[in-house]
Amino acid sequence: MRNSFFISGKNIGYHMKKKILIPILIILAVAAIVVFTRKSDTQKIGLVYIADAEAIDLAKIGLTEQLDSLGLKVEIEYANAFGEPKNINNIVNSFKQKKYQAILALTTPCAQIAQQQIKEQPIVFVGVSNPIAAGLVKTLDNGYENVTGTMSNDPVFINVKLAKMLFPEIKKIGIIYSANEANSQSIIQTLEDSIRVTNMPIILIKKIVNQTADVYPVLNSLVKDVDALFLINDNTTSSTSELIINTADKANKPVFSCDIESVKKGALFTYGLNYKDEGIAAANILYEILIEKKKPADIPVFVNNKYYLYINKVLFEKYPISRKKIGSPFFEVD
């Protein structure tokens, strides 16, 4: 029986095993190359943002943590435009020349300029209040051309309703914003429409600024003419939130916000978004584009509508308001 494996001195069993083994090794080698490429290749990404702000910091944290969780190795160039549109242009052009695999554009102004300048590289916008009005996409059901991203669906009117419930005497609410930002215009329009439709006895006193340096003089005048101040997610004024809160506090005017981080700085409350969630969503979209090779046009816009109620304990210490009056679960901030 042992000799049946030998013909003309050749070991047929050996050669059969060899013929089977070689294709298996080839398959394993190819699989190893695919895995190695997917896991070890570093993707280069450019990230542009309008200015330093708490919401942007949270989005960046969510982004990097989720990229790490997905095993997607990236090298990110962070570029701060310091509130200047001309800086955004220069940054985006630089990203284009460097041929990064993807561009992340945090906030509406950055996303709009990126879309205007870049037609080849994928663009993922983050923290845009109304991407349709901003001209970034045609519908939320999918991206447009090389652009998709995440939408901040701020519940601005709910915050006004909550303010009116807690402070029934409020009649005039002051808002400082930049008319140059499509997201801010959209927020203001939504708020005015909601107040009109519901016949809420509230008057919005709006003040427009073009740059952060304009906020202080406008604020000093505004705080005398209103009963409360509302911090919307406006990129120009976000970096001055602490100034606005402190000035209003000295004038004994309550401040409420759409931003969780502002509550930590002294705003009384917010029913709003955690922008870390949008950073996580942006990382998931990047994975679809870079690893799964999906086109941005085929990826729906992520709509962030997960809300949290945060209340600063100062609300209960400074004003005659009980915790029971809130009527909903909330996070209390020291």
UniProtKB/TrEMBL annotation:
CDD domains: PBP1_ABC_unchar_transporter (cd06325). The keyword Transmembrane helix applies. Keywords: Membrane, Transmembrane, Transmembrane helix. Pfam families: ABC_sub_bind (PF04392). It comes from Tannerella forsythia (Bacteroides forsythus). It comes from the Bacteria. InterPro entries: ABC_transpt-TYRBP-like, Peripla_BP_I. SUPFAM superfamilies: Periplasmic binding protein-like I. The chain crosses the membrane at residues 20-37. The keyword Calcium does not apply. Gene3D superfamilies: 3.40.50.2300. This is ABC transporter substrate-binding protein.
